Amino acid sequence: MLNPRTAKHTFMFIALAFIIAALSLLSLSVGGVSVPLKEVLASLAGRNAEASDLIIMQFRLPRITAAILIGAALAVAGALLQGVIRNPLASPDLLGVTGGASVAVVAFMTFVTGYSIHWIPFIAIGGALIAAIINYVFAWKKGVSPFRLVLIGIGISTAMGALTTFLLISGPAYLAAQVLNWMTGSIYGTNWSYIKVLWPWVAIFIPLSLGLAKELNVQSLGEDVARGLGSRLQLSRMILLFYSVALAGAAVGVAGTISFIGLMAPHISRRLIGNSYKMIIPVSALIGAIILLLADLAGRMLFQPLDIPAGVFTAGIGAPFFMYLLFKRKKA
């Protein structure tokens, strides 16, 4: 018989997985062209020869799959950063990771003619990694402290934002709309080619992150305690930061700068299942997927025939959530 805590966690996983499945089916069914649920299920089972099969399998299903993968990647990236920095307000934006990815992609779009869009996730990961390395090098002083990482990360984020704006202004005018749409954060137009590029990063680095959950739990006790328990603090911190950069960079490369999922999902996860990273990481992934599915569904349905980027809705929810966290910490 399961103990109460295990039973609660099992129920939580099942409930979150059910919500993802329900939202996915709803997203497949509704839109500019509504498709009956019976036809949706038939298409998924490979038994539908209707014209709607094209809409479901080639347009909507890749978009929904991308939302699940991107939401999970951003959420786990945020959870890892919050664990490494021991700051519940940390997110990939904070260390300049998403800023570095944005600069790299905008520069690639601006200076490379005839490029393949399938290279963008790799370019984004490279830019995110360079920004993280710069942060780590400047923060190093007989080791790296979370406080220095945050301070330097804020400076790098500001610099990357300015550089992105400069590239956008100085680049060809016809690229401005495309780049701005990408920077807003959208999974509109995502196809199976993007999924092929994205899923290996998610499939590799989320399980690897889960493998270091114990290390994050030890680091949450403080540096002195972690060293006393035999933690190789700087090495594990560097590895965890790399995992976070890889997940955030891959997500940004496909969908642009979708903000605040890396902040919100780990917080919601802690409220639901406690402070053990063995549970925070997988639950955060599920919650991140749910948040982005909801944001994309809202963008498709609320202002038809317009398709509003999902990043607009995550920012609209995340900014007040961030202010609430700041207010709460100030009162504490």
Automatic annotation (TrEMBL):
Membrane topology note: Multi-pass membrane protein
Cellular location(s): Cell membrane
Phylogenetic lineage: Bacteria, Bacillati, Bacillota, Bacilli, Bacillales
Keyword check for Manganese: no
Primary residence: membrane
Organism, as annotated: Paenibacillus odorifer
Gene3D superfamilies, per database record: ABC transporter involved in vitamin B12 uptake, BtuC
Database matches in CDD domains: TM_ABC_iron-siderophores_like
Alphabetic keyword roster: Cell membrane, Membrane, Transmembrane, Transmembrane helix, Transport
Domain of life: Bacteria
Name of the protein in its database record: Iron ABC transporter permease
SUPFAM superfamilies according to UniProt: ABC transporter involved in vitamin B12 uptake, BtuC
Protein's UniProt keywords contain Nucleotide-binding: no
Similarity section: Belongs to the binding-protein-dependent transport system permease family. FecCD subfamily.
InterPro entries (alphabetical): ABC_BtuC-like, ABC_transptr_permease_BtuC
Bilayer-spanning residue ranges: 64-82, 94-113, 119-138, 150-177, 238-265, 277-298, 310-327
